[in-house]
Specification:
single chain, about 230 residues, alpha/beta, two-stranded antiparallel sheet, globular, disordered N terminus
């Protein structure tokens, strides 16, 4: 992470330059370095910490989907919330996202969980915390990432135009509570986790609502249909 300022995509670098050079990010870098030196396995790999920002430049953001922290199992996380690498079993929350998409848009569920196709169209798949220790959920919360990703959301709120914020669950809804609903569309529903999806995530219609809003404001809708195989993205 020592090359953070260099590796950040240019539009995000301009928007977040002060954050990147701030003391708390320096402390976060030191924390991550210490963890690695202690032999701990950190996910995703360093080159993918900012994958969501790399794939979705600030001016291109159409939709924001917020997660909490990366998957902590071997080979799962690659820098996009809810997404897993090709060949990895589709996580339960993403299974439910696919079910809702099928109900809402008639889209047949994909046989993989690799969501870069969405990110390349302007869907910012942002976790609140961008790293995690293997097999230790929430292990990097409170280390500085939340402040950085707050700044990401703030940049979209202030510089984006007609963006759809899909806020699933109370954590995401609190994190993005400051979004200006006069400038953007804020959609709220329970989290797609099997524990809560039946409390209102199913039937929320967020995908069709997002595309209708984008179209009504002169923006290209998102093609939510994922390629047949992950390798086609």
């Amino acid at each position: 992470m020592s090359e953070t300022a260099v590796r950040l995509e240019e539009s995000w670098k301009q928007a977040l330059g002060e954050e990147v050079s701030s003391p708390y990010m320096g402390e976060l870098r030191q924390f991550l370095q210490r963890e690695k030196e202690a032999g701990k396995r950190i996910f995703p790999k360093g080159a993918e910490y900012f994958r969501a920002l790399d794939l979705t430049p600030l001016p291109e953001v159409k939709v924001v989907i917020l997660g909490q922290d990366p998957y902590h199992g071997q080979g799962q996380a690659h820098g996009l919330c809810f997404s897993v690498r090709p060949g990895v079993r589709i996580p339960p929350s993403l299974v439910n996202i696919y079910k809702e998409m099928q109900s809402d848009l008639g889209i047949k569920p994909a046989r993989h969980g690799f969501l870069e196709h969405w990110a390349r169209q302007g869907v910012l798949l942002l976790n609140s915390v961008l790293t995690v220790e293997e097999s230790r959920a929430a292990s990097h919360q409170g280390k500085g990432w939340e402040r950085f990703t707050d700044a990401v959301i703030r940049a979209v709120n202030e510089q984006g135009h007609h963006v759809v914020f899909m806020l699933w669950g109370s954590y995401a809804q609190k994190k993005a509570a400051f979004v200006d609903q006069r400038r953007h569309l804020v959609l709220k529903a329970p989290h797609p986790s099997p524990l809560s999806a039946h409390n209102g995530f199913f039937g929320s219609g967020h995908f069709s609502k997002a595309n209708a809003y984008l179209l009504s404001n002169g923006r290209e809708p998102v093609d939510w249909q994922l390629p047949e195989t992950a390798n086609e993205q």
